[in-house]
Amino acid sequence: MSDDPTTVPVLDGGFLALDGAFASDLAVVNAARVSFNSTSSAMEERDEGLIRYLMRDRHGSPFEHGYFRFLVKAPIFVVREHHRHRAGHSYNEWSGRYSRIEAEFYVPDYVRTQVGKPGAYTFESVAPDVRESARAEIAGQAESAFAAYERMLEQGVAKEVARTVLPLSMFTKYFWSCNPRSLMHFCSLRNSEHAQFEIRQYAEAAEAFLAQLMPSTHAAFLANGRSAP
Ligand SMILES: Cc1cc2nc3c(=O)[nH]c(=O)nc-3n(C[C@H](O)[C@H](O)[C@H](O)COP(=O)(O)OP(=O)(O)OC[C@H]3O[C@@H](n4cnc5c(N)ncnc54)[C@H](O)[C@@H]3O)c2cc1C
Question: Which residue out of 33, 84, 100, 190 is catalytically annotated?
Answer without folding.
Answer: 190
